[in-house]
Design goal:
CATH class of the largest domain in chain A: Mainly Alpha
Strand content of chain A: under 5%
Oligomer: heterodimer
Bound molecules: adenosine-5'-triphosphate, magnesium ion
Strand content of chain B: 15-25%
Shape of chain B: globular
Largest sheet of chain A: none
Strand order of the largest sheet of chain B: 6-7-8-3-9-10-12-11
Structural class of chain A: mainly alpha
Number of helices of chain B: 12
Largest interface: A-B, 24 and 31 residues
Largest sheet of chain B: 8 strands, mixed
CATH class of the largest domain in chain B: Alpha Beta
CATH topology of the largest domain in chain A: MetI-like fold
CATH superfamily of the largest domain in chain B: P-loop containing nucleotide triphosphate hydrolases
Number of domains of chain B: 2
Chain lengths: 321, 341
C-alpha cells in the first residue's frame, strides 16, 4: 500500500516534468518573436534586443526551461506576463476560482442527473425511460458545448429572461455590477447546465452499462438466493460494485476539465482559466500559458492521486494487496 | 409428502437464435434428509433446473411451466415475498464457481450475517456469533478472526467452505449444491464432499447435488437423476443405477468414470457432442451418439418407463430389457474385475 503510493507520486513528478517540457518546446517551435510583442510593433531593433535580454529570450530553450523551473520551485513564482507585465501567479489566482466553481458545480449537477437516470435505465432496459435516456445520451455526446451554450443562453437567458446571458459574478467580493452568493449562483446556472449536458450523457451510458453488467454477477445471484429483497440487492451488492469505476472516471474528468473548460467559458464570458489561456495563446504570452499548463497538470495529477487513494479506501482488493 | 416434488418442469429461454429449451419436462422428488444427485454432461440443463426451482432465472426472457412443490407450496407460482422467505432459510443454494459467488467488496462476515439477519430476529452480534460457529463447522481455521477478511483473501476451497457455511447458516431443510467441487482440485474436492456428508448428518438437511461426475454421486447420493439434453434419461436409487443401469447414456457415463483406486486413470469419453438445445434431434435425443441405435430410435422418442422389478427405477430407451440387463451385467463385471485386479 505504501509502496503503491510512493510509485504513484514518483510517476506524478515524471508526468509533470514531461508535460511542462513539451509545452515549452512547442512554444519555441512556433515562428513568432515574443520579444517583438514585449517591445511593441513599432519598436526599433535595439529595443527588441533589450527586451530579449531582459526576458532571457536569447538563451537556448533548455536554459530557459531550467530558469523557469528554478524560479517556480525556489521562488514559487511563474514569472510575469509578456503582454501585461502582471504576475502570472495573480492571473492564475484570479481565473482559477471561476473555473473551479464551474467544474465542481458542473460535476455535482451531472452526477445528480446521471446516477439516477443511469441506474433506472439499467433496471428497466428498453423501457420508455431507457429509450428517452438513450436519446439524451446521443444528443449530449454529439452536441458541441458552444452550440449547447448558445442555445441555452438564447432561450433561457434572452427569451425567458431567467438568467444572465453570460458574465461572472464573484462569490465573495462584490464588484461594481454584481457579486455575492446569489448573483454568483445565478450567473453559473447556465454554464453548469451546459457542463451537465455534456458529461451527464457519457456518465448515464457508463453507469447503465456498469449496473447491467454487475447485475449479472454471480454474487448478486448469491444475494438473491439468500432471500435478500431486491432493494437490498441493489444497494448493498450491485451499486457499490457498479459505481467503483465511476469514481475513477469522475476524478480524471474533473482534473481534465479544470485544465480548461475553454468552450463553455468562452460562450458565457467567464473569466476562467480556459478563457485566459485562449487570450494568452493568441498573444503568444508564454509565461501565462505555462502558468495555466502548470496549474492544469497539477490539477490532473492531484485528482488522479486522490482517486487512487479513494479507490484504495473503497476497494478492499487494492487496500489489502 | 416429499420435501420437494418437481413435476414436468420446463424452462425455455427466448434468445436471438430462437427458443432454447434448457429444461424440457423434468420430474423428480427429494425426501426429507435424503440426497439426490443430478448428473449429466455440460450444458444438459442441470444448473437451469435448480435455478428455476430457486426462482433465480432472469425473468425477461424465460418461460417456465410445471411446478416445484416445496412442502406442498409451489415455488414457481408463489408471490415473491413468500419466495424470499423460503430462499436462504428453508432452501439454500451453493453455486458452481466459488471465486465469483462472493461479493468482493464486503467481508465474508458481513455476507454471512446478512443471511442470518434476513431470516432471524436476532441482534448483529448474535448473528455474528452464529456466523463464526458455522465457519468453524466448515473447517475455517481461526474463524473468529478470518470472519473480517475479504473473499480475495481466501483460496478457492476456502471460499467454497464459506459458501457452504453461508448456505447452512439458517439450517435449511433443502440444500442445493451446484457442482460444489468442480472448480476445485482433487484433494480439496474430496475434503468438501466429506464435509458435506458430515454436515448432512449433523444438520439433517436434504441435498440436491449437481455434478457431471458419477463418482461424486456414488459417494454422496441416495437417488440419482441422469439428465441428457434437457430431459431425464434415467432415474432411480443409487443401487439401481449403479447395479442395473438401463440407458446407453448411463453406460457411457459409467464407462467414463475416472477411478481413483487404480493408478491408470481411465477416462473413456462418450464419442460425439451433446446436441444443441435450440433444435434437439428427432426421436431419442441420444440416438446420434448411441452405439445401440435402431430405426425406431430415429423416429420416435421413448417414454420414461419403469424398469420391471425395480421400484423407483425409470428409463427412456427403446432397447429390450434382456439386452439392457446383459449389457449392464457386462459393465458391472468389467468394473469389478478392474477393481479387484
Ligand atoms: N439465460 C440463458 N439464456 C439462454 N440460454 C441459456 C441460459 N442459461 C442457460 N442456457 C442454456 O441452457 C443450457 C443448459 O445450461 P445449464 O447451465 O443448465 O447447463 P449445466 O448442465 O449446468 O452445464 P455445466 O455442467 O456446464 O454447468 C445450455 O445450453 C445453456 O447454453
Ligand atoms: Mg451448471
Amino acid at each position: 500500500m505504501f509502496r503503491y503510493l510512493i510509485r504513484r507520486v514518483l510517476w506524478a513528478v515524471v508526468l509533470f516534468v514531461a508535460v511542462t517540457i513539451v509545452s515549452f518546446v512547442i512554444f519555441f517551435i512556433v515562428p513568432v518573436e515574443p520579444a517583438r510583442l514585449i517591445a511593441g510593433p513599432q519598436a526599433p531593433p535595439d529595443a527588441v534586443e533589450r527586451a530579449k535580454k531582459a526576458y532571457h529570450l536569447d538563451e537556448p530553450v533548455w536554459q530557459q526551461y531550467g530558469r523557469f523551473m528554478k524560479t517556480m520551485i525556489v521562488d514559487g513564482s511563474l514569472g510575469k506576463s509578456l503582454a501585461t507585465r502582471q504576475k502570472v501567479n495573480d492571473v492564475v489566482k484570479r481565473a482559477a476560482p471561476v473555473t473551479i466553481s464551474l467544474v465542481i458545480g458542473g460535476a455535482i449537477l451531472w452526477m445528480l442527473v446521471a446516477v439516477p437516470i443511469g441506474i433506472l435505465s439499467a433496471l428497466r432496459p428498453r423501457s420508455l425511460l431507457d429509450r428517452a435516456a438513450m436519446v439524451f445520451v446521443l444528443v449530449g455526446i454529439s452536441a458541441h458545448p458552444v452550440w449547447i451554450g448558445l442555445i441555452l443562453s438564447y432561450f433561457v437567458g434572452y427569451k425567458l429572461n431567467l438568467t444572465p446571458l453570460g458574465g461572472y459574478c464573484d462569490l465573495i467580493n462584490p464588484s461594481t455590477d454584481c457579486g455575492g452568493p446569489i448573483d454568483w449562483f445565478h450567473s453559473m446556472i447556465l454554464p453548469w447546465v451546459t457542463f451537465m449536458l455534456l458529461f451527464a450523457a457519457l456518465y448515464v451510458r457508463m453507469i447503465r452499462a456498469n449496473v447491467l453488467e454487475t447485475m449479472n454477477e454471480d454474487y448478486v445471484r448469491t444475494a438473491r438466493a439468500k432471500g435478500a429483497p431486491e432493494s437490498q440487492v441493489m444497494r448493498s451488492h450491485v451499486l457499490r460494485n457498479a459505481l467503483l469505476p465511476v469514481v475513477t472516471m469522475l476524478g480524471m474528468d474533473i482534473g481534465l476539465a479544470l485544465g480548461g473548460a475553454i468552450f463553455t467559458e468562452s460562450v458565457f464570458g467567464l473569466p476562467g482559466l480556459g478563457k485566459v489561456a485562449v487570450e494568452a495563446l493568441n498573444g503568444f504570452d508564454l509565461p501565462i500559458v505555462m502558468g495555466i499548463t502548470v496549474f492544469a497538470t497539477l490539477a490532473i495529477i492531484i485528482f488522479n492521486l486522490a482517486v487512487d487513494l479513494l479507490y484504495a479506501v473503497i476497494d478492499p482488493r487494492i487496500r489489502l494487496s | 409428502m416429499a420435501l420437494l416434488e418437481v413435476n414436468d418442469l420446463k424452462t425455455y429461454f427466448r434468445t436471438d437464435d430462437g427458443i432454447v429449451k434448457a429444461v424440457d419436462g423434468v420430474s423428480f422428488q427429494v425426501e426429507k434428509g435424503q440426497t439426490l444427485g443430478i448428473v449429466g454432461e455440460s450444458g444438459c440443463g442441470k444448473s437451469v433446473t435448480c435455478l428455476t426451482i430457486m426462482g433465480l432465472n432472469a425473468k425477461r426472457n424465460t418461460i417456465t411451466s410445471g411446478n416445484a412443490l416445496f412442502r406442498g407450496e409451489d415455488l414457481l407460482t408463489m408471490n415473491s415475498r413468500r419466495l424470499r422467505e423460503i430462499r436462504g432459510d428453508d432452501v439454500a443454494m451453493i453455486f458452481q464457481d466459488p471465486m465469483t459467488s462472493l461479493n468482493p467488496v464486503h467481508t465474508i462476515g458481513r455476507q454471512l450475517t446478512e443471511a442470518v439477519l434476513l431470516h432471524r430476529d436476532v441482534t448483529k452480534s448474535q448473528a455474528r456469533a452464529r456466523a463464526v460457529e458455522l465457519l468453524k463447522a466448515v473447517g475455517i481455521p481461526r474463524a473468529d478472526r478470518r470472519i473480517d477478511d475479504y473473499p480475495h483473501q481466501f483460496s478457492g476451497g476456502m471460499r467454497q467452505r464459506v459458501m457452504i457455511a453461508m448456505a447452512l447458516v439458517n439450517d435449511p431443510d433443502l440444500l442445493i449444491a451446484d457442482e460444489p467441487t468442480t472448480a476445485l482440485d482433487v484433494t480439496t474436492q474430496a475434503q468438501i464432499l466429506e464435509l458435506m456428508n458430515r454436515l448432512q448428518r449433523e444438520f439433517g438437511s436434504a441435498i440436491i447435488i449437481i455434478t457431471h461426475d458419477l463418482g461424486v454421486v456414488a459417494e454422496t447420493a441416495d437417488d440419482v437423476v441422469v439428465m441428457y439434453a434437457a430431459r431425464i434419461a434415467e432415474q432411480g436409487t443409487v443401487d439401481e443405477i449403479f447395479k442395473r443401469p438401463h440407458h446407453p447414456y448411463t453406460w457411457g457415463l459409467l464407462g467414463s468414470l475416472p477411478r481413483l483406486d487404480t493408478d491408470t486413470e481411465r477416462l473413456v469419453q462418450i464419442p460425439g457432442q451433446p446436441p444443441s438445445l435450440l433444435n434437439p434431434p428427432r426421436g431419442c435425443r441420444f440416438h446420434p451418439r448411441c452405439p445401440y441405435v435402431m430405426n425406431v430410435c430415429k423416429q420416435e422418442e421413448p417414454e420414461l418407463k419403469q424398469v420391471t422389478g425395480d421400484h423407483d427405477h425409470l428409463q427412456r430407451c427403446w432397447l429390450d430389457e434382456q439386452t439392457k440387463d446383459r449389457e449392464a451385467a457386462k459393465l458391472l463385471h468389467a468394473s469389478m474385475a478392474e477393481a479387484t485386479s
